[in-house]
Amino acid sequence: MSNKRKQYIVKKDFQHSHIMEGLLIIFITINLIIAAGYLFLDSAADFQRLKLIIVTSIAGIEILALLIVFRYKLIVSNRIAGPLFVLERYLVAMKQGDLSFTMRLREKDHFHEVKDQLNDTVSTLREQIKLAQQTCDALAPHITHSPEAEQQYQQLKTTLAHFKLDSADKTANSGTPDNDNQKT
After folding, report:
1. How far apart are the first and last CA of the chain?
2. Full domain range(s) for residue 42
3. Phi (first) and psi of residue 97, to 5 degrees
4. Residue-wise DSSP of 111-139
5. Residue ranges in the chain assigned as alpha helix (H)
6. pTM for the whole thing?
7. What is the number of structural domains in the chain?
8. How do residues 61-115 score in pLDDT, each as one tens digit?
């Protein structure tokens, strides 16, 4: 079975904006280089001086363009990497049974759809586990004196107690998502 991707555009708005940003940067850089060449073409008297001026201006524009592109892409990449960092922390918290969080992102960050899906999923899990805990508590008086049933009941209760469903369930848990929520 081939792992080749058949559909390259999977998040249309996200991908188109990044493609257009890259193309715009290239277009502006090329136009600046051409403009600098024409600007110095009229003022240079001899050919050697013209070559030096053109090479110097192209190098200067390229260095400036690299600095601008670096700064711009650093900001843009943070809007991608920041949410991935936060998502990773929340997934680790979920693995440890912590469902007491609501994931938040900065307004200009990417992956708001993923954040919304994660929050909906966690909310559903929270509700289902609360229902299971209530059902378990309701069964307690009905457990017969069977050691096996009592053992299974205790195992179920211990398993359900592993999950943190509300902020109030937490105790001194520095490093969990809510303590440093959205500092990325």
Report:
1. 39
2. 12-169
3. 95, 5
4. -HHHHHHHHHHHHHHHHHHHHHHHHHHHH
5. 12-41, 47-95, 112-139, 147-161
6. 0.64
7. 1
8. 878 887 888 888 788 888 888 888 899 999 999 999 999 989 999 998 989 999 9
